[in-house]
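User: Some background: our group keeps a shared notebook of sequences we're curious about, and every so often someone picks one and asks for a predicted structure to add to the entry. Today it's my turn. The entry only has the sequence so far, pasted here. Could you supply the structure so I can complete it?
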Amino acid sequence: MFSTGQAIFALLFIIGFTIAVVLMYRKDSGWLKKEYKGVQWILLAFVSFVIILFFLKYILR
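Assistant: Of course. Here's the predicted structure to add to the notebook entry:
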């Protein structure tokens, strides 16, 4: 299916990409907490709206 070289490349790529993502998240985590403060309320409102729509769909059937 894959040659040995391709498998080694895929493994190294996954390891390198994971390390890069973790390092960038740690670098940006303080900014992310400050910038996206309160976003959980928007998510809660959106989920509630979708639940209400499904509820109305089944009631008005």
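Suggested note for the entry: The chain is about 85% helix and 0% strand. Helices lie at 4-35, 39-59.
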